[in-house]
Amino acid sequence: MKFQRIDLDNWSRRSYFEHYLNRVNCTFSMTANIDISELLPALRQKGMKLYPAFLFMVTNVVNAHREFRTSFHTDGELGYWESMIPSYTFFHQDDQTFSTMWTEFADEFPVFYQNYVADMKRYGDNKGFVAKEPEPPYTFPVSCIPWVSFSGFNLNISGDGRYLLPIITSGKYFEQEGKTLLPVSLQVHHAVCDGYHASLFINDLQKWATNYKEWLGVE
Hints:
The chain is α+β, with helices and mostly antiparallel strands. It has six helices and ten strands; from the N terminus they run βαβααββββαββββαα.
């Protein structure tokens, strides 16, 4: 996967990037409920799970906006990946631990779904933090907390404050006023994303959930 370097001298965001990275190191999170009222029964009708559908939708949103693919390369250079794939957590029921997994992305949901199923079958019983190695550098983190319908979620990352990729977390879906809602939290670094970009993410994710017929293959 190609990594495009960013020319800071000709980058319109340079002053914001330097402010929120070096002067006031700042991340922020936004939580919203995504309406999956029609998507969920359509998935059930096809015998498919919600989590891989969620991974498919968020990956499409991430790949649609450069701000969500901007990061530091392993050599320290700032840039963005041409496209990314999800690195997601899954739960081990027997000992209540979790592991991370990455799955190759495909533009066609049935193909991605089969990739997900194949990975879970092959690596799903592997314990430890990373179930499938080696993980490529062009991944972004996704997790799920399916036991609670949270109204807010925030991660506190220690270190040098140079982690720029979005962190996406879903919660337990719930019923409200005749709708099925999925809480989704997005955490971003203010150096590369503003409230406008976070809003783009949430609104685009809702569009993917609403327009499920276009990619799920149902009438």
